[in-house]
Amino acid sequence: MRTKEKSARIHKEVPLRVLRAVAVVAEVGSVTKAALILHQSASSVTRAVQEAESLLGLSLFERGARGMVPTAAGGVLALRVGRAMELLQAAAEGRRLRGAPPSAAALPRLVSDSLLSALVARATHATESAAAESLGVSQSALHQALRRLEHLARIPLFERTRVGTRLNESGRWLLMHARQAIAEIRIGHEELAHWRGLRGRRVSIGTLPMADDVLVPRAAALALAREPDIAFTVKGGTYEALTDMLRSAEIDFIVGPLREAELAPDLEEELLFVDRFVAVVRAGHPLLARRGRATLRELAAYPWVGPLPGTPAQRVLERLCERVGAQRPNVSIEAHSTALVRSVLLAGDHVALVSPLHMRAEVEAGLLVPASGPLAGTERGIGITQRRDALASSACVSVLQALRQAAAEAVDELRNKYGVEADK
């Protein structure tokens, strides 16, 4: 089974029904009280706690006259499972607003690992047969699981279109919360494994242009030097695609240009430094034959590789033109891909406005050359974007600290090598 598909599932060794019992016992401190909340017998709750401790190889509770008190390990696991249950409860409340009856509130208490896995697999694959194959079950079994999930949700989750069946708005709402819940439980297992000296903590980073050239590689190297058990997944994409992945917990945070005033209310940003742009061209470009740095009006005489519409870089370019009273350059190509921008610049006489860190390797190799100095009015914030309600894992905390160190080093490099003042 592929690693990607495995990561989408709740840890199979400890069933969700068992984890749910652990979280409730930790919250109320009593098996008897937990049994009432879970609508189970006290003996079944006791067996669930014992099963979790046996599977994990850890003591999760201290038993005494004052009841059940979670150990440090039990507290970590209960925290993550509790957050997962809250997310599923939020999904249930959202479905109530979408027309589901009050009985839909029972879904967090009744849903199983297999039902959540079926939902995630079906959303990830184009067909039920492909989703079933990814889970190692029959298509009929997957279909039944999805119907069972719809029954618990008390509202349709799918709609038929001309090209097949897809999640409707209620289904997408449940999917987002299910993925976040699965991620919380995965983190709980990873934290316990780390305590036992096992490898397996993971951090998934979304990168925007510039961050994947310097900041993220440097931060990963710093983090791995301190904690070599961390495994990284790095995903590039547009801001819109990455924020979708962030909301569904497919990535832990995004590194790159910030949106600041335009930031969505469910996200939060941390500024690492303020960057300033320079214009770059290929070595041997006609602009380089003149003395001194080129002005924006001189740069505008050549074709440009421009940023995508609606991005911070595009707004920086517009502000710059307005500031100096120059006509906007002829942007013949709009591109997000660093590789494409690099190739176009090297192939002809195009100009691009970039951070000095963005094309750092090509400038140091003499392939690209700054045609201007740092351009006043081109400031933009570079930093980290996270979900506002996220609780970082220990691995994420380490990587975020490494990112802050990498950003400080990048500021010094901009100042010392390129003469760019990048404010911390």
Short description:
The chain is of the alpha/beta class. It is built from 17 helices and 14 strands.
Features:
single chain; 424 residues; alpha/beta; Arc Repressor Mutant, subunit A; D-Maltodextrin-Binding Protein, domain 2; 5-stranded mixed sheet
Global shape: elongated
Q: Mean pLDDT, rounded to whole units?
A: 88
Major pleated sheet: 5 strands, mixed
Q: What is the H level of CATH, i.e. the homologous superfamily of the largest domain?
A: Winged helix-like DNA-binding domain superfamily/Winged helix DNA-binding domain
Number of strands: 14
CATH architecture of the largest domain: Orthogonal Bundle
Percent of residues in helices: 40-55%
CATH class category of the largest domain: Mainly Alpha
- Structural classification: alpha/beta
The fraction of residues assigned to DSSP E strands is 15-25%
Query: Low-confidence parts lasting 5 or more residues at pLDDT below 50?
Result: 1-12
Could you say how many structural domains there are in total?
A: 3
Cα distance spanning the termini: 45 Å
CATH topology of the largest domain: Arc Repressor Mutant, subunit A
Q: Evaluate the radius of gyration.
A: 26 Å
Number of DSSP helical runs? 17
Strands of the widest sheet, in order across it, are: 6-5-7-14-8
Describe the protein's architecture and organization.
The protein has 424 residues and is of the alpha/beta class. The chain is 51% helix and 16% strand. The chain has helices spanning 3-7, 16-28, 31-38, 42-56, 72-97, 107-110, 113-124, 128-135, 139-153, 169-195, 211-226, 239-247, 296-299, 312-324, 338-347, 360-364, 394-418, and strands spanning 61-64, 67-70, 158-161, 164-167, 202-207, 231-236, 253-257, 267-275, 278-282, 304-306, 331-334, 351-354, 368-370, 380-387. Strands 6-5-7-14-8 form a 5-stranded mixed β-sheet, sandwiched between helices. It has a 5-stranded mixed β-sheet with strand order 11-10-12-9-13. A two-stranded antiparallel sheet has the order 1-2. The longest helix has 27 residues, at 169-195. Mean pLDDT is 88; it is low at 1-12.
